[in-house]
Design a protein that fits this description.
- The protein is α+β, with helices and mostly antiparallel strands.
- The protein has a single domain, classed as 3-Layer(aba) Sandwich (SMI1/KNR4-like), CATH 3.40.1580.
- Helix content is 45%, strand content 17%.
- The protein has a six-stranded antiparallel β-sheet, with helices on both faces.
- A hairpin with a 3-residue loop joins β5 and β6.
- α1 runs parallel beside α7.
- It is globular, with a radius of gyration of 16 Å.
Length: 166
């Protein structure tokens, strides 16, 4: 996975330890994902589901942004914080066109207000991802586009570290 390689390159030159260098969590089992879906009451978006079956979350994936795994989505301190952040965005509809019952947090910053919300299956545009931080930062057609965009941001982080260290 290209994200692993980019993170490794950042770790090699992040002499000041700006960001924690982490690997993704061990993949979720099909049973864990099915348990999650039974708790949620709906099927998880196929792209996000594929991610969970590859990596059951990734702490500090991009700087301080944690991608949620199964345990986060069934209730954890990280998901509770994400829900609190979502509450601060009320009303959501003017921001992204969806209400809080239409969205599920899939990632959040551990030290800032960045939050990634995905539309649930019952919506007119299931699987769409919104990056919000006080306001709408960006919109992505799905989890894969969001993930690849975040990898591009990781590459920019790497380039900035290279420039800083030269």
């Amino acid at each position: 996975m290209i994200a692993h390689l980019v993170k490794q390159e950042i770790a090699k030159i992040d002499f000041d330890g700006l960001w924690e260098n982490t690997l993704p969590e061990v993949r979720a089992s099909e049973e864990q994902v099915q348990f999650l879906e039974s708790k949620l009451g709906y099927s998880v978006d196929p792209q996000y589901r594929a991610f969970l079956l590859h990596a059951n979350g990734w702490r500090s994936f991009s700087q301080f942004i944690d991608i949620f795994g199964v345990d986060d989505l069934v209730g954890s301190a990280r998901s509770a914080r994400a829900i609190e952040l979502t509450e601060t965005l009320e009303p959501l509809e003017p921001l992204c066109g969806f209400g809080k019952n239409d969205l599920i947090p899939i990632a959040a910053s551990s030290n800032d207000i960045d939050l990634m919300l995905m539309t649930r299956p019952h919506t007119s545009d299931p699987g769409k991802v919104f990056w919000v931080a006080g306001g709408l930062i960006d919109t992505f057609t799905g989890f894969d586009e969001w993930f690849l965009s975040m990898v591009d941001y990781l590459r920019l982080d790497h380039q900035q570290l290279v420039e800083r260290n030269t």
